[in-house]
């Protein structure tokens, strides 16, 4: 089976849904941010603090590229992976790209900003990120899942769509 790649805004549920999806399909689960933290031996927030966003984006691109050897995996990406155009081709090669389009009001209502350096102390910035990234997620994805249902129901929706997509 092709890998399933989850993209979407921070707080849309990529990690939660990815873990459930992997369990249901008996695939492995890979969280791109976790891989970065393990290889860099640093929290994402520390990488931003010490080296800035540009350096983080470079590490993110390299990490995505390194994942090209993976098979039978569900991969949750960082919300900003669409900020670099060169990542589009990598994401496409990685597998079926699924955009988790959770309603903005729901995300802003319950997002934990403590571990998200771009939003620290400025939760409203999510609005700007959403405006800029929404067309990018739509552009890169093969499938789009909308709604704010229970995670198990969203996983059913994803599975239905993935099957239809072949
Ligand atoms: C980022 C989102 C984060 C993480 C980093 C940058 C972004 O991932 O990659 O803090 O630019 O939106 P999540 O989408 O899992 O929060």
Please sum up the structure shown:
The protein has 166 residues and is of the alpha/beta class.
Count of alpha/pi helices: 8
Helix share of residues? 40-55%
Number of strands: 5
**Radius of gyration (Å):** 15 Å
CATH C-level: Alpha Beta
CATH overall fold name: Rossmann fold
The average pLDDT is 95
The poorly predicted ranges are: none
- Do you know the CATH architecture? 3-Layer(aba) Sandwich
Report the sheet with the most strands, covering strand number, pairing sense and barrel closure: 5 strands, parallel
How does this model look, in words?
This protein has 166 residues and is α/β, with parallel strands linked by helices. The protein has a single domain, classed as Rossmann fold, CATH 3.40.50.300. The protein has helices at 14-25, 32-40, 44-51, 53-66, 86-94, 104-110, 125-140, 151-165, and strands at 4-7, 28-31, 73-76, 96-101, 143-146. The protein has a five-stranded parallel β-sheet, with helices on both faces. α1 (14-25) crosses α8 (151-165). The model has no long low-confidence stretch (mean pLDDT 95).
